[in-house]
Amino acid sequence: MHGAELLLQTSVWLRLLQGLWVTAWIALVSVGLSVPVGLIVGWLMTSRVRVVRWIMRLYLEFIRIMPQLALLFIAFYGFSRAWGLNLDATAACVVVFVLWGGAELGDLVRGALTSIPRSQYESAQMLGLNPWQTFTHVILPQALRRMLPASVNLATRIVKTTSLAVLLGVVEVIKVGQQIIDANRFQYPDGALWIYGVIFFMYFIVCWPLSIVARRLEQRWNHDD
Amino acid sequence: MNWSFIAQYAPFFANAALMTIYISFFGVLLALAVGLVCAAVESAHVPVLRQIVRVYVELSRNTPLLVQLYFIYFGLPKLGVVLSAQACAIVGLAFLGGSYMAEALRGGFDAVPRVQLESAQMLGLTRIQTLSHVQIPQALSTAIPGVVANVIFLVKESSVVSAIALADVMYVTRDLMGMTYDTYEALTLLIITYLVILLPISIIGTILERRFDYARR
């Protein structure tokens, strides 16, 4: 029978969507937790203490140069040996994506903060704003504009990287797809083409709008500063 | 730390690194070719091809390499397109990398001001001379940082090819951890291997960036 008929079964779509939900859950939690971690990392990166800046730099460079799959292996297999920290595969994914997203976002926060001229702080002070008002009314609005497009792009990268979870054994959309292909191997031998095609477009439908948002923000905010 | 393990299995990682380098090298080369064609089509505003390139770039940038690889490795044979695992990995990397390279290269070409092209024309330079003496040198200086970042990105992404049974660095690491339970040693070798592959690329990249940064010299 023709493999495309597999896609006429509602159960196939329901299962794939359940798998996609696991993927989306990992991505959402990781992106959500990356924001506070990134803010702290970014703040530490602009610290006056040199040692703190060096440690943060080392952390960022290590995360950047290692493939995400290698980081996943280190967290999944290494942490349990090192500290008896028995992370399940999903938790290992979230930990790695937060460490990675936090480092990258931290660098964006650092870049945005340091790109704001000193005069802005000084003018705010002259106008009688206190440090908190200076931060929320002067610095933050400008910093956000500078980092938001790249941050949305980072979120897209995190969503795409959640696909690696299947290699640690998380039952997410790709694993569900493999199960459907294997279960129907005799009835629909060419199921792989259609199921992987559907998964391909599922990722696309999630990531594409994010890319468009990032591009729009970039175009709109590039003009006025 | 079990040093005899490291001495015993380091050659495994050296071989695996060669596989990673081999796949990435040809993947990057093909990605550059794809990127160059796409960038040329886009900046020359070729009518129909331009739309096709747009669709390709969006598809390739917004889907994960792992899914692309599974589609090429398990899906395409059902259409009669059967490639070896190595060819799949290289084609997958090129499919992903082509769009990234296209964006970096296009950014370079777009950064050359129109005045430059008009001046070159006025000076009587031919189209080819303009390209080789005016456009390419200036485009390179803007494009190189992006291209270098993409090369590093693609080498890192190649870690996924272990999923289609290619004996790269990740594959050997998992294999050894399963066989020997020497997790620390295998992970240490994994980290060292990737550092040995990626640090030189990163350093060469920085040198290239300086070399082609005409504006600041």
From TrEMBL, chain A:
UniProt GO molecular function: transmembrane transporter activity
Compartments, as annotated in UniProt: Cell membrane
GO-annotated cellular components: ATP-binding cassette (ABC) transporter complex
UniProt keyword annotations, A-Z: Cell membrane, Membrane, Transmembrane, Transmembrane helix, Transport
Superkingdom of origin: Bacteria
GO biological process, alphabetically ordered: amino acid transport
Keyword Chaperone: no
One matching Pfam family: BPD_transp_1
Ranges of residues in domain ABC transmembrane type-1: 20-214
Regions that span the bilayer: 20-46, 58-79, 194-214
Keyword Acetylation: no
Membrane topology: Multi-pass membrane protein
PROSITE patterns linked: ABC_TM1
Family assignment from sequence similarity: Belongs to the binding-protein-dependent transport system permease family.
Classification via PANTHER family: ABC TRANSPORTER MEMBRANE-SPANNING PERMEASE-GLUTAMINE TRANSPORT, MEMBRANE COMPONENT OF AMINO ACID ABC TRANSPORTER
The protein, known as: Amino acid ABC transporter permease
Automatic annotation (TrEMBL), chain B:
Cellular compartment(s): Cell membrane
Pfam family, one: BPD_transp_1
Superkingdom assignment: Bacteria
GO CC annotations, alphabetized: ATP-binding cassette (ABC) transporter complex
GO BP annotations, alphabetical order: amino acid transport
Domain ABC transmembrane type-1 residue range list: 17-205
CDD domains: TM_PBP2
Main location: membrane
Recorded topology in the membrane: Multi-pass membrane protein
Any GO MF annotation of the entry: transmembrane transporter activity
Keywords: Amino-acid transport, Cell membrane, Membrane, Transmembrane, Transmembrane helix, Transport
Transmembrane segments: 12-37, 70-96, 147-167, 187-208
UniProt-listed PANTHER family: AMINO-ACID ABC TRANSPORTER PERMEASE PROTEIN YHDX-RELATED, MEMBRANE COMPONENT OF AMINO ACID ABC TRANSPORTER
UniProt xrefs under NCBIfam families: HEQRo_perm_3TM (TIGR01726)
Family classification: Belongs to the binding-protein-dependent transport system permease family. HisMQ subfamily.
Protein name: Polar amino acid ABC transporter permease
Originating organism: Galliscardovia ingluviei
Lineage, highest ranks first: Bacteria, Bacillati, Actinomycetota, Actinomycetes, Bifidobacteriales
